[in-house]
Design goal:
The complex is a heterotrimer of chains A (320), B (334) and C (589).
Chain A lengths: L1 H18 L5 H4 L7 H11 L5 H14 L1 E3 L6 E3 L6 E2 L4 E2 H36 L4 H15 L2 H15 L15 H35 L2 H9 L3 H29 L3 H6 L5 H10 L3 H29 L7
Antiparallel strand pairs in A: 1-2, 3-4
Helix pairs in contact in A: 1-13, 5-6, 5-8, 5-10, 5-13, 6-8, 7-8, 8-10, 9-10, 10-13, 12-13
Chain B lengths: L3 E12 L2 E13 L4 E5 L6 H8 L8 E9 L2 E2 L5 H7 L4 E4 L3 H4 L6 H12 L5 H14 L5 H4 L9 H13 L5 E5 L7 H18 L2 E6 L2 H7 L2 E6 L2 E7 H6 L4 H9 L43 H4 L5 E3 L2 E3 L5 H5 L7
Chain C lengths: L5 H15 L23 E2 L3 E6 L15 H10 L5 E3 L10 E3 L7 E3 L4 E5 L14 H10 L3 H4 L6 H5 L21 H10 E4 L2 E5 L7 H4 L28 E7 L3 E6 L17 E5 L4 H10 L7 E4 L4 H9 L7 E14 L7 H10 L2 H8 L5 E3 L29 H14 L1 H10 L1 E6 L2 H16 L4 E6 L4 H7 L4 E7 L9 H5 L16 H13 L3 H18 L2 E12 L4 E2 L16 E3 L1
Parallel strand pairs in C: 2-11, 2-12, 15-16, 15-17
Antiparallel strand pairs in C: 1-20, 3-4, 5-6, 6-8, 7-8, 9-10, 10-11, 13-17, 13-18, 14-18, 19-20
Classes of the chains: A mainly alpha (320), B alpha/beta (334), C alpha+beta (589).
Chain lengths: 320, 334, 589
């Protein structure tokens, strides 16, 4: 319930912010042969002449009832849920998001699994082998990983795996339903780039978390009880150390779903991030409003999920 | 056979600043059913000693030497698996802070059951639950049927310590090591917990090693007292003698610095001057000599020669002072 | 004018950074390179897939009535959009030769050049096998009038030439386009563009000697009415050429495959080689360059849309093993700075501004010599027939550096001759209108500094980029930046448009200038001149005239550089479009 109210507020705010920008959406619908009359006519046609509240109303109505843009014979209908029409891309924003979201979701999901595996795995190893070479390697990795810009690492990966050695083809996104192998091949590099960079933070978080928990009294009691080491690590240490990590990971994942901008650009993956970036370049307001809102929705949902998960994972915060 | 025999225990922690000599040459015996207190300030080595019994001293560079013979078997030379089988079954431990000692993620029933299951692999879920319920009831948790499925944070501090005790006793240990079991609790609850430990001891016949800095607690339930200072045992005596005829200037200082349980005596409190020594740079000779009021009377002996534990009256003391002076430390009141 | 692609704009921006790092160095120099072996058909085979790599997120549009980017006009025209006439797809000067395409000949003019008729070849089909009719062409042309669909993105010659009265449509015509027109309004159009069997007749309101060039623009291409999806037509345009659009997704790719219903028998111009052309959008510029240099796998079969990063030009043009894969040439654009001749009504002041301007610094800021040559004409060098370097103002330094002394001398003259304008230029300052962009933030600083050295004051007036032209259409400053390329291979799309009466892009307020009447008379003479040689001579004289009057300061004749994969053949710079004849590019090996 709270999440729904929050989304309404977010959508209104997004709408307001973008309409307060100095760029004129009507002017953008017009080429260089543009005359002021054309801009004005388009403004009316797009409804930008109406008061903001009315525009917002029409927008919200479009989400539930669909909306027709333009007039008579030359109109375009976007069925519900309509998030607007892009006069720059000539498509319903909803269908643009529908075609880009799976790409971003594919990137995010794979990267997330990988980075959690690498981050938590290496972090755990480092903590358990504290002070040994494994620890130094993992800690070194996290320092290097954090300081690598995504752009640079991505470029390096392309150079090494695509251009110099030709081990992989240049990524070309294919839907998983079309061809799972191509899908995988196109995504493996971006997954690793994102995973390596994000994992760096998680290595540190996991390592520090585990070391912290290892000093907890209840872990010592667990040992004093005679718990086997493996079981102790899994049920006592990891369990406790992962709770805060899950929370942060949930939000990170949501941010990623909002668009992995740099990665999508380097690897040329037509996802939400690239859609947003292009919309920024072209000042394509309807897309910007929609992608911002979609990202906000993900974050709100992720927050809600994390809250629930947190309660599930940690009985101390469970709501009765 | 002696239940537990500790011989010449030395524990050293290597740190970047230098070696910390936490325990030096500690030896003692525990007989079945006996209650022994190890008393000292923080840093005296009492907790390290207790932890050593179960090999619970963790850290990158821990060196332990000596013997810890549990019914003749040396804990220090056991394999990991062997130690594990001793932990929680032959020797169980109660920690200082019940608020942090329980795993916050599992119900208390599960944790008690787990303590049993570790050493009884065949136990069924039903049995475990039954055992958990019984244990809770035994340690005086009301409504065990309801409480068994609750999480630690739903209990008060005293209740949690009862649960920790229940968990420690679930395998009928031969020795119960209680490391400051009441320090973190309210004064009113302290007495109840001590009573519970005593009661449980009576029921199970376990020996109890009570680690504490609180002489008041010692007086309540123990039979024998070992006083530790700077990693060494400085005095070992029966509880009566410890209070009535302390045979070490440090013990005397301890007694004078705490409120006596005997409210009839309105003596002024006298804190021990100075601070406990650094375990990295121990004073030469007797480690207590810089704080000792009697050291000057013996010339330079206290700063050059470390005193051995010897028999003084019916106690044992590590002090260079002649016996008669040691026996009269409390000013003739005996 | 053809829109300059976003790529070039961004490339210029990047170049600015590279230029600042002192990219000039030694070794490679910008000259003219035609592509060597890759421009020939040496060893070409039929079939294969040609790749087009670009950093653009998509085409600017595939809608024929909207497209106005040089390279895209050539690319779509050579693949899926045939028009009545087109250019001969060959390298060099001959590439600007107009040839019949869907029409049987170059058209017949009558009625003092106010009526033009074209007869279509038989048997031209749409991709679904149906006939391309004369009505389809008329319908296509009518779409230009629909402001709500074409939005003024494409060329507007249909509006300015066709004999349709002015009115109150958004474009100021009595005909509002096929969607909104009442039957009466539609009749106005049908009268101006009529069909008689296979013959289409255009009735013009003004005499146009080279209207047969006009109909070569894709804006005059046919569109089948029943396939028209209005604003969305550009997502899936219907093909009548050798290729058709299989799929188009912005941010991802455009796939062109062979159109089985196109027949070589009806097309004397196009010679398609490959089976498939795949545009890969949204690639990183740096990645594109690396891939092209590495020349591995499918990239051997790739061409690039968008040029080479400035920092890689040294590598590409310093390595002679790449001689057969690279091109360096003019892209057809000339940048210039317009004066508001009414507010700066003193030729000496205008000359002083030109003399004082540090053009070399501006070019360095843009990326150095590879970005272009100092323009000596408003007509681009590509427009070979009409191009002739003009005689520039006395004292102007060849190397583009400012001549402060000469500028000051001109100002002295102005002080007595036109004291008001002198005072304006030296005290109040001249208002400089330009789109608000990072590039221009740098440029304007150069303007202010170099003119300041001669005592001329500039007031910076940045205008939000998307509103720039709409703004200066109403409120003009004293100086305004712009760029232009010819719409077809005739300076009739340059001189009259930029400087003539009613020119679509004339922001000079020069009608009141003493020299204007003579100028306009000569423009009218040139427009009606059907002898191409005589016409060329007139354009050259007119260009000299504008340069003498300094109505505008010519900036750069801009250049572009490209690198293609080693299997690519037939990739020559097609002069009218400044890019390749995409539909005719083939692959060897």
């Amino acid at each position: 319930m709270f999440a729904v109210v929050l989304l309404l507020i977010v959508s209104a705010f997004t709408f307001w912010i973008f309409s307060a920008l100095p760029s004129d959406p009507a002017a953008l619908t017009c080429g260089k042969n543009c005359r002021p009359e054309v801009i004005e006519a388009n403004r009316e046609r797009l409804g930008y002449d109406k008061p903001l509240v009315e525009q917002y109303g029409a927008y919200m109505k479009g989400i539930f009832a669909g909306r027709t843009y333009g007039e008579e014979g030359a109109s375009v209908h976007c069925p519900a849920p309509s998030l607007g029409y892009s006069y720059d891309r000539h498509e319903c924003v909803t269908s643009l998001i529908a075609s880009t979201l799976p790409v971003t979701a594919s990137i995010a999901l794979g990267a997330f699994v990988l980075w959690m595996a690498i981050g938590v795995g290496l972090g755990t190893l480092a903590a358990l082998k504290r002070g040994r070479w494994q620890d130094r390697l993992a800690t070194g990795f996290s320092v290097v990983g954090v300081s690598f810009p995504t752009f640079f690492l991505g470029l390096m990966f392309i150079m090494i795996f695509v251009i110099w050695t030709g081990i992989l083809p240049f990524p070309r996104y294919t839907g998983i339903t079309e061809n799972p192998v191509d899908w995988f091949m196109a995504l493996i590099l971006p997954w690793f780039v994102l995973a390596l960079i994000s994992a760096a933070t998680y290595v540190r978080m996991t390592r520090n978390g585990i070391l912290e928990v290892m000093n907890e009294e209840f872990v010592r009691l667990g040992i004093a009880k005679g718990l086997p080491r493996k079981r102790l690590i899994v049920t006592y240490v990891m369990r406790a150390a992962l709770v805060p990590i899950v929370t942060i990971a949930g939000l990170d994942f949501a941010f990623l779903l909002g668009g992995a901008l740099v990665t999508e650009s380097i690897f040329n993956l037509p996802g939400l991030g690239k859609l947003t970036l292009a919309a920024v370049v072209n000042s394509d307001l309807p897309i910007l409003v929609a992608t911002t809102m979609v990202a906000a929705v993900f974050i709100v949902i992720a927050n809600a999920v994390v809250d629930v998960l947190y309660g599930y994972l940690d009985p101390r915060v469970r709501v009765k | 056979m002696t239940l537990l025999s500790v011989r010449d225990l030395n524990v050293t922690f290597g740190t970047p600043e230098g070696d910390v000599r936490a325990v030096q040459g500690v030896s003692f015996d525990i007989e079945p059913g006996e209650t022994v207190a190890i008393v000292g300030e923080s840093g005296s080595g009492k907790s390290v000693t207790a932890n050593s019994l179960l090999r619970l001293n963790f850290g990158a560079d821990v060196r332990i030497s000596g013997e810890i013979l549990l019914e003749g078997r040396d804990v220090l030379t056991m394999t990991e698996d062997e130690v594990r089988s001793v932990r929680g079954s032959d020797m169980a431990m109660i920690f200082q802070d019940p608020l942090t000692a329980l795993n916050p993620f599992y119900t208390v029933g599960r944790q008690i059951g787990e303590a049993y299951a570790i050493h009884h692999p065949g136990a069924t879920k039903k049995e475990l639950r039954e055992i958990a319920l019984n244990s809770l009831e035994k340690v005086g948790i009301p409504e065990p049927l309801k409480r068994v499925d609750q999480y630690p944070h739903e209990f008060s501090g005293g209740m949690r310590q009862r649960i920790v005790i229940a968990m420690a006793l679930v395998n009928n240990p031969k020795i119960l090591i209680a490391d400051e079991p009441t320090t973190a609790l309210d004064v009113t609850v302290q007495a109840q917990i001590l009573e519970l430990i005593a009661e449980m001891q009576a029921q199970h016949g376990s020996a109890v090693i009570l680690i504490t800095h609180d002489l008041g607690v010692v007086a309540e339930i123990t039979e024998r007292v070992m006083v530790m200072y700077a990693g060494r045992v400085v005095e070992s005596a029966s509880v009566e003698n410890t209070f009535a005829v302390p045979t070490h200037p440090y013990t005397r200082g301890l007694l004078k610095s705490v409120k006596s349980l005997d409210t009839a005596r309105h003596e002024r409190l006298e804190p021990i001057p100075g601070t406990p020594p650094s375990l990295i740079k121990l004073p030469s000779g007797c480690p207590f000599h810089p704080r000792c009021a009697f050291a000057d009377s013996l010339g330079g002996r206290c700063s050059s020669e470390a005193p051995e534990l010897r028999i003084v009256g019916s106690s044992r003391s590590a002090c260079h002072l002649p016996d008669e002076r040691l026996l009269g430390l409390m000013g003739g009141a005996s | 004018m053809k829109k300059r692609s976003k790529v070039l704009a961004v490339a210029a921006l990047v170049g600015l950074v590279a230029g600042a790092c002192g990219g000039s160095g030694d070794g490679a120099k910008s000259g003219e390179e035609s592509g060597g072996r890759s421009a020939t058909m040496d060893g070409v085979k039929d079939g294969g897939t040609l790749y087009v790599l670009t950093m653009q997120e998509g085409a600017s549009t595939l809608d024929p009535q909207r497209v106005y980017t040089g390279a895209e006009l050539g690319a779509w025209g050579s693949t899926f959009t045939r028009t009545l006439t087109t250019y001969k797809p060959v390298a060099g000067k001959d590439g600007t030769t107009l040839v019949p395409d869907m029409a049987t000949d170059l058209g017949t003019a009558s009625d003092d050049l106010k009526t033009w008729s074209f007869t279509m070849r038989d048997g031209i089909k749409w991709e679904d096998g149906s006939d391309v009719t004369c009505g389809d062409i008329a319908y296509g042309v009518s779409r230009t009038f629909a402001a709500e669909v074409t939005a003024g993105e494409g060329p507007m010659y249909a509006l300015s030439y066709l004999d349709i009265p002015e009115g109150d449509s958004d474009f100021g015509s009595a005909y509002p386009g096929p969607w909104l027109a009442t039957p009466e309004q539609q009749a106005l159009f049908d009268e101006a563009v009529s069909c008689d069997g296979n013959t289409i007749t255009f009735k013009l309101g003004v005499p146009v000697a080279d209207f047969n060039y006009t109909v070569g623009l894709l804006a005059f291409a046919p569109v089948p009415k029943d396939q028209d999806t209005a604003d969305q037509y550009g997502l899936k345009p219907f093909s009548n050429g050798p290729f058709k659009v299989e799929s188009y997704e912005e941010g991802k790719e455009l796939v062109l495959v062979r159109n089985e219903n196109w027949s070589k028998d009806t097309d004397e111009v196009r010679e398609p080689k490959v089976d498939k052309i795949v545009w890969q959008f949204g690639l990183d510029e740096a990645v594109i360059d690396e891939r092209m240099l590495a020349d591995a796998g499918d990239d051997k079969n790739a061409i690039v849309y968008g040029g080479i990063l400035p920092e890689n030009l040294q590598t590409v043009f310093g390595d002679d093993t790449l001689k057969d894969r690279r091109t360096d040439g003019f892209d057809g654009f000339v940048s210039y700075t317009m004066f508001n001749v009414e507010s700066v009504s003193c030729v000496e002041v205008r000359q002083a501004v030109w003399l004082a301007l540090d053009r070399e610094a501006l070019r360095t800021a843009a990326g150095g010599p590879f970005t272009g040559e100092f323009a000596k004409s408003f007509v681009a060098p590509l427009l070979a027939a009409d191009y002739e370097p003009a005689k520039l103002v006395d004292g102007l330094n060849e190397d583009g550096t400012p001549n402060v002394e000469a500028a000051k001398a001109k100002l002295e003259e102005a002080k007595t001759k036109c004291p008001e304008v002198y005072a304006k230029a030296t005290e109040d300052g001249l208002r400089f209108d330009h789109p608000d962009s990072d590039t221009w933030k740098k440029n304007i600083a150069i303007w202010i500094e170099s003119l300041g050295a001669a005592g001329i004051k500039i007031n910076d007036n940045p205008i939000e980029a998307s509103k720039y032209y709409a703004t200066i259409n109403g409120d003009r400053g004293d100086l305004m930046r712009a760029g232009w390329a010819a719409d077809w291979a005739n300076a009739s799309t340059v001189i009259p448009e930029l400087f003539g009466e009613g020119g679509g892009f004339n922001y000079h307020n020069n009608e009141g200038d003493a020299a204007f009447a003579d100028f306009q008379a000569k423009v009218d003479e040139a427009k009606a001149e059907t002898d191409r040689a005589k016409q060329s001579k007139l354009w050259k004289e007119l260009n000299q005239y504008v340069i003498d009057q300094v109505w505008s300061i010519p900036g750069s004749a801009t250049k572009s550089q490209n690198l293609v994969g080693s299997n690519v053949r037939g990739a020559f710079q097609w002069l009218p479009f400044g890019w390749y004849n995409l539909g005719g590019v083939g692959l060897a090996g």
